[in-house]
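Hi R.,

As promised on Friday, here is the backbone we talked about, encoded as structure tokens. Could you run it through your design pipeline when you get a chance and send me back a sequence?
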């Protein structure tokens, strides 16, 4: 694009992200959303840039029309680029570095969240009602029962707390065994086609081309418009096609493994064991993963190793760069240190507080404009968790505490939104135990909210959470299952470490088989399944595996604005799928019984949609928002009510004016939209005396029950739309 078009694209109406807000309702009070977002933090910088870009436009005669219209008549777009927009069937794969940061939802709609990554592995396991918000996009992070992780409007590798994957193995007649993990460690040339609802992944290797078979994976959940029930199954289907590329017969196997993730976020704080049980029935082999109470099991002692509390009153153990952190830790707020004043009256306390002892690290020496960095001494990670107190700017790309392992940045955390109390946050760093690490605290920002406060950093094997009793009513209570649609599959309920497991198989051995195994909740408990088959020259065979889950106890997530709340206190609303299934094995049995139809109808939708004469890029972009239905943005409660956050988290209650923009669900799954009209707009949210419809459903706490004119008007139009449909 030309410079001119770039400049104009920064017009005022684009400056607040989605630019949805002309309503009296807002995410946080009775002010305009755009004003709120812009003034409440990072937006301040945006406002300054915006003002200067408008001045630039006014001073540039060629762009003068933009001042009046914001979109100039002559946009000077590159003709080649324009032509490309109209190309049909320009089907392109994502490859290389793009694979690291891409993710596509692959679970049933409104039934928890699971993503497939670029290399075919699974991530973002928010299947157990364990992410209570996805945070407003500004925040870049989300607090879950597994710790603090990235999200929002930037790129990052989707996180997986669980060990999971597949490998392909071939055995020649002469006994030569070749084994590759179906991920980037096993293949250096992977092609990913993200055509929602189906991800297609081709595994190739330039560096090791000697694998005698080709492998293609299709990863998806059934997605069948006008059949909401069969599109909301808590399942991810993984179909692998393996083809013999040689002139000789080949024995092959697909091996999958999955870690029991039940109550994983409660490790050390809940007296329980994970349990894996093997079962076989015609056509399927399943390992059901759940938990059992272990009232006599000792809780992990809450031993902590304080790494730094700054109580020496100096930075002796830190390398200090820049001015922001001063020459010594602070003993309180520094002169002028506060959040930029908000243009609305709110009752939040935004003063600095709750540091530990006398001293804490504070980057406001020299005001918000100062920048700097504290770097710790190197240390070896020995415990599962790193815990720290933190407050300050919430954009961790500017102000943050960070962990590098073996010289590579692996974790970052910023402050919380509009909250300067130093709160305990933590990272699960189990995967880095035994490795060299450093912590560094960074202030790279010079805008008014750009400062960071850090205190009491400690290492522990338990998260900073309360002890809880095992209970069938717990939100994270439930089960998950790994199934091979092969009743002769080899199965191991406990295969130890994945590396050892795969090596043992390659050597012709196998771990001991059990019908049932238990492990202390704090241990990794990984189950494996292997499906073997032979391939004639040129022959292809498909093997199907299922990952299913069943965590029925969804609580209502409506505390505060819907974010920063680690444990929701809301009533149980449940997940819709509990009405249809007994457990995750039952889910797998339903999918197995109906597999041909579910796959056929899903592929029919995919093919019908993507074989349109419209340009491929356009089809992809229109389909992408639909995948939001399969994220934790959306919920479908036991009683049949659809309920959702606004978008990337903020805010709760299926907000009327924001969901005005969603047209896909009404046409593809009309019963979901109809439920919002029936449960919310025309029932709970309606004032029978005036007909006013509140902007949010099921809200308590600090969310004001206000009306939004555009939401009200939209509710009328949506009711009419549902009538027509
Ligand atoms: Ca301290
Ligand atoms: Ca600063």
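Update: got your reply. Pasting your designed sequence below so it's all in one thread:
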């Amino acid at each position: 694009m030309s410079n001119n078009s770039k400049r104009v694209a920064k017009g005022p109406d684009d400056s607040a992200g989605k630019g949805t807000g002309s309503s009296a309702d807002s995410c946080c009070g009775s002010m305009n959303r755009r004003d709120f977002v812009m003034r409440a933090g990072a937006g301040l910088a945006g406002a300054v840039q915006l003002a200067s870009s408008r001045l630039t436009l006014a001073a540039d005669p060629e762009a003068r029309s933009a001042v009046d219209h914001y979109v100039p008549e002559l946009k000077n777009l590159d003709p080649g680029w324009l032509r490309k927009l109209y190309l049909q069937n320009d089907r392109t794969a994502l490859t290389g570095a793009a694979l690291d940061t891409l993710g596509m939802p692959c679970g049933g709609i409104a039934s928890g969240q699971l993503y497939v990554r670029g290399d075919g592995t699974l991530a973002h396991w928010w299947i157990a009602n364990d992410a209570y918000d996805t945070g407003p996009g500004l925040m870049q992070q989300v607090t879950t029962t597994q710790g603090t992780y990235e999200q929002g409007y930037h790129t990052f590798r989707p996180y997986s707390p669980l060990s999971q994957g597949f490998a392909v193995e071939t055995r020649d007649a002469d006994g030569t065994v070749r084994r590759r993990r179906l991920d980037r460690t096993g293949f250096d040339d992977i092609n990913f086609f993200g055509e929602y609802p189906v991800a297609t992944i081709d595994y190739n290797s330039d560096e090791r081309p000697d694998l005698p078979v080709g492998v293609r994976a299709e990863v998806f959940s059934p997605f069948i418009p006008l059949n909401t029930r069969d599109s909301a199954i808590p399942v991810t289907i993984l179909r692998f096609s393996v083809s013999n590329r040689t002139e000789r017969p080949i024995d092959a196997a697909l091996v999958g493994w999955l870690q029991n993730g039940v109550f994983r976020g409660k490790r050390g704080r809940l007296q329980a064991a994970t349990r894996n049980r093997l079962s076989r029935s015609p056509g399927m082999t399943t390992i059901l993963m759940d938990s059992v109470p272990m009232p006599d099991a000792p809780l992990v002692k809450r031993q902590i190793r304080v790494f730094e509390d700054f109580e020496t009153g100096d930075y002796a153990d830190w390398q200090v760069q820049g001015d922001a952190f001063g020459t010594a830790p602070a003993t309180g707020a520094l002169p002028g240190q506060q959040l930029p004043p908000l243009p609305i009256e709110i009752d939040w306390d935004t003063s600095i507080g709750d540091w530990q002892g006398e001293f804490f690290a504070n980057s406001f020496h020299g005001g918000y404009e100062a920048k700097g960095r504290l770097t710790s001494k190197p240390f070896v990670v020995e415990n599962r968790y790193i815990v720290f107190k933190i407050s300050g700017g919430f954009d961790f790309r500017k102000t943050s505490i960070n962990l590098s392992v073996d010289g590579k940045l692996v974790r970052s955390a910023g402050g919380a939104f509009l909250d300067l109390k130093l709160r305990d946050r933590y990272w699960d760093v189990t995967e880095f135990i035994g490795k060299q690490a450093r912590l560094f605290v960074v202030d790279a920002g010079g805008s008014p909210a750009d400062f960071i406060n850090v205190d009491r950093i400690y290492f522990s094997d338990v998260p900073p959470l309360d002890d809880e009793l095992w209970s069938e009513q717990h939100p994270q209570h439930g089960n998950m299952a790994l199934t091979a649609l092969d009743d002769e599959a080899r199965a191991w309920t406990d295969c130890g470490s994945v590396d050892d497991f795969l090596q043992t198989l390659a050597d012709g051995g196998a771990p001991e088989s059990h019908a049932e195994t238990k492990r202390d909740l704090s241990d990794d408990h990984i189950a494996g399944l292997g499906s073997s088959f032979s391939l004639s020259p040129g022959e292809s065979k498909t093997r199907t595996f299922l990952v299913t889950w069943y965590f029925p106890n969804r609580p209502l997530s409506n505390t505060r604005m819907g974010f920063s709340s680690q444990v929701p206190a809301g009533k149980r609303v449940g997940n819709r799928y509990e009405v249809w299934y007994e457990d995750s094995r039952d889910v797998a049995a339903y999918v197995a019984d109906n597999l041909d139809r579910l796959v056929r109808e899903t592929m029919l939708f995919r093919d019908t949609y993507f074989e349109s004469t419209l340009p491929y890029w356009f089809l992809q972009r229109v389909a992408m928002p639909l995948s939001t239905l399969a994220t934790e943005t959306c919920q479908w409660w036991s009683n049949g009510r659809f309920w959702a956050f606004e978008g990337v988290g903020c805010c709760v209650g299926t907000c009327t004016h924001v969901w005005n923009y969603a047209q896909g669900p009404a046409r593809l799954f009309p019963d979901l939209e109809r439920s919002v009209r029936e449960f919310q707009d025309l029932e709970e949210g309606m004032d029978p005396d005036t007909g006013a419809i509140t902007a949010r459903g099921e809200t308590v706490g600090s969310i004001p029950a206000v009306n939004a004119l555009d939401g009200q008007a939209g509710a009328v139009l949506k009711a009419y739309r549902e009538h027509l449909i």
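One thing I noticed while checking it: The first strand starts at residue 103 and ends at 105.

Thanks again,
M.
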